[in-house]
Recover the amino acids of this structure.
């Protein structure tokens, strides 16, 4: 092991308290030195907030001002708490407690329960959804799997906002919240759920906070004991605190003010869970003598990315916008954000996949690239496009499209209807494939209009709607296609996307991307109705959508691409408009109002957009216009006669398996089946002929071209050559 490697794995603990301050910028240093009284750190994206607060704690500990056992640092995820503990240990402050709100409360509850209540703490319910289902059944209310998830989420929201069952309907009305069911029904289920828990002596995760609050309120002696133990508090991501968590924090503090909070109101994107930035925004009102430090030096993103982020917030309205931070990039200049308009969604996905492939060829690791979208149902077209481009990918915070419960159930229903054929009464009155699919999926929750609000029911509908759109596109390409043909197509797509997970491009929703960062970020599907989402009705909801886009932009370190499609499918009416949030920021979209960031960088390439529509691709057998990606790759309709050399195709598949095994990647990352079929049909003999086949780009030509041409020429030795 080299000294450098040893140093990176085992960083040297600073020798003195003053050495802890080395390397901090002036504002971070100010945070580290602010060890007395209330402190509020307003920290923009990428400004090193975790670095600032961990160095503050470590400096206080090493200087003898903060006894390590007296400090409690709380955050929201186990990952963040673990990262904080690791950094504190490296700085010589390993005795500090860094926990999530729930784990800190549970620890106290377990310790004080025998003294406060007697006996053992009730069993913690790991998953409340089964008990919610039983509560609904007792109320004679039928819930499907997705409604069950949404009602469970509503109960969690009610509890963290300290709303009792009887008050739930009024609280929903006051908050302008879209309830997944009649609020009176949810209130009834909520009350029955609470009774079932009492009957069975179990508690849920929200109860951990509620019961800890109750004990600290009712037992001053226990509250005093906790306050003697913990005298200094640090709260990370303070913009995400719920009313219940704030109540617990107040009880931990008592009448003291040794509190440091860190947050950014412009990154409040979880209000649907009960999070509110009000506590952060009101901090200086509650603590008039607070030290306020603003961290605005952005070490993550280039000036070009930061310029766009600042421009987005310059147009924001509301309380959070009044406290926005103007970031200042500390990095060298980089490429301008790219704004790309495509003719349709498949073109957008294919164009994104091509650009990702180019970035990887230029040396950007696949694991340092992300595609971010508004809803998980958007992932399918990008899964397909990346698979076709031979780019490995991984999904974060969601199952692959064809592995989702509702998609699997829909597949079973479509397969059953295909087998029954004309004997299935569901298909009575349907005269084409799309209407048959709509009829079948209507039994699984699909409706012609989306359900109101967000949540599991909306997610399920989005997945089913994606299948309906896929059927419409399939029927357009194959006018005579049957339900059985569609089922076969779905099975093939599922098989292509069920390759083993490998280190690859991240596909994630914008919500799941919070707290992460990549060298290159592609923000896709940025049209009105998706960003902001259609169910964002109030000004407050629309502003949260703007903040969500801001979070997406600030995930990028160097490369940032923003794109949208004018229509859903090839040949469709170009009726969509790019998101209003980019008005005045992207070239050609008009000027932004006063205080804006006009000329926010970027080049509108128009690839696949109005000015650069792809010309029609015609079948080389029958001359029909091709619109489906697989058919265009083959340059023929998929049901037109094939002149493929079957033996050559099998040799290519065998060679591909060897390559994939050697590279440790799925077979599709070498070439997809469709590309191998196209090669076996055209039997290229030169680099030029091979590169003209869709799916064979410059990188793959250089890496695999010699092998493929050798196999096409009948030289079996090509199989023995494995590229390093």
């Amino acid at each position: 092991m080299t000294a450098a490697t040893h140093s990176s794995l085992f960083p040297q603990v600073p020798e003195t308290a003053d050495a802890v301050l080395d390397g901090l910028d002036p504002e971070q240093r100010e945070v580290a030195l602010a060890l007395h009284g209330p402190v509020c750190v307003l920290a923009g994206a990428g400004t090193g907030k975790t670095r600032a607060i961990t160095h503050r704690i470590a400096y206080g500990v090493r200087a003898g001002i903060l006894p390590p056992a007296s400090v409690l640092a709380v955050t929201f995820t186990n990952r963040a708490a673990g990262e904080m503990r690791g950094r504190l240990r490296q700085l010589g402050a390993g005795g500090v407690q860094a926990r999530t709100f729930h784990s800190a409360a549970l620890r106290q509850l377990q310790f004080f329960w025998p003294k406060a209540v007697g006996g053992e703490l009730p069993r913690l319910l790991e998953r409340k959804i089964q008990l919610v289902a039983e509560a609904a059944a007792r109320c004679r209310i039928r819930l499907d799997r997705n409604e069950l998830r949404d009602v469970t989420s509503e109960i969690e929201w009610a509890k963290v906002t300290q709303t009792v069952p009887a008050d739930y309907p009024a609280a929903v009305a006051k908050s302008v919240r879209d309830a997944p069911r009649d609020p009176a029904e949810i209130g009834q289920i909520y009350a029955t759920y609470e009774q079932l828990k009492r009957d069975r002596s179990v508690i849920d995760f929200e109860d951990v906070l509620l019961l800890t609050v109750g004990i600290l309120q009712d037992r001053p002696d226990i509250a005093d004991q906790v306050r003697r133990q913990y005298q200094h508090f640090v709260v990370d991501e303070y913009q995400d605190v719920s009313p219940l968590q704030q109540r617990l924090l107040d009880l931990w503090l008592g009448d003291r003010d040794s509190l440091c909070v860190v947050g950014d109101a412009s990154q409040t994107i979880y209000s649907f869970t009960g999070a509110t930035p009000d506590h952060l925004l009101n901090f200086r009102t509650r603590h008039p003598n607070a030290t306020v430090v603003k961290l605005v030096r952005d070490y993550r993103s280039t000036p070009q990315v930061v310029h766009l982020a600042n421009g987005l917030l310059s147009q924001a309205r509301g309380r959070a916008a009044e406290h926005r931070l103007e970031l200042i990039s500390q990095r060298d200049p980089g490429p301008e954000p790219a704004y790309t308009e495509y003719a349709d969604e498949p073109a957008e996905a294919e164009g994104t996949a091509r650009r990702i492939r180019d970035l990887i060829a230029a040396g950007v690791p696949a694991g340092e690239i992300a595609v971010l979208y508004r809803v998980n149902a958007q992932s399918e077209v990008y899964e397909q496009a990346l698979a076709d481009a031979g780019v490995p990918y991984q999904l974060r915070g969601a199952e692959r499209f064809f592995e989702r419960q509702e998609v699997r159930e829909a597949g079973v229903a479509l397969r059953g209807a295909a087998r029954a054929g004309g004997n299935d009464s569901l298909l009575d009155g349907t005269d084409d494939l799309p209407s048959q699919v709509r009829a079948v999926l209507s039994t699984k929750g699909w409706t012609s209009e989306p359900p109101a609000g967000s949540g599991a029911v909306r997610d399920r509908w989005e997945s089913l709607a994606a299948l309906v759109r896929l059927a419409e596109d399939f029927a357009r390409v194959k006018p005579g296609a049957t339900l059985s043909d569609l089922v076969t197509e779905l099975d093939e797509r599922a098989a292509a996307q069920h390759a083993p997970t490998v280190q690859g491009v991240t596909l994630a929703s914008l919500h799941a991307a919070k707290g992460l960062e990549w060298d290159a970020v592609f923000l896709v599907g940025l049209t009105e109705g998706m960003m902001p989402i259609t169910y964002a009705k109030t000004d407050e909801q629309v502003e949260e959508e703007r903040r969500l886009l801001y979070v997406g932009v600030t995930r990028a370190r160097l490369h940032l691409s923003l794109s949208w499609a004018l229509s859903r499918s090839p040949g469709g009416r170009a009726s969509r408009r790019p998101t209003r949030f980019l008005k005045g920021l992207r070239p050609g979209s008009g000027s932004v109002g006063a205080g804006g960031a006009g000329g926010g960088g970027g080049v509108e390439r128009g690839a696949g957009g109005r000015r650069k529509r792809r010309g029609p691709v015609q079948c080389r057998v029958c001359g029909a216009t091709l619109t489906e990606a697989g058919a265009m790759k083959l340059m023929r309709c998929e049901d037109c006669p094939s002149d493929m050399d079957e033996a050559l195709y099998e040799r290519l598949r065998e060679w591909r398996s060897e390559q994939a095994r050697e590279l440790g990647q799925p077979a599709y990352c070498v070439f997809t089946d469709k590309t191998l079929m196209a090669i076996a049909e055209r039997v290229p003999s030169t680099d030029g002929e091979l590169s003209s086949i869709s799916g064979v780009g410059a990188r793959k030509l250089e890496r695999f071209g010699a092998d493929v041409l050798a196999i096409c020429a009948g030289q079996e030795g090509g199989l023995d050559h494995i590229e390093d």
Summary: Confidence is low (pLDDT under 50) at residues 1-10, 498-502, 592-615, 719-724. The CA atoms of residues 149 and 456 lie 6 Å apart.
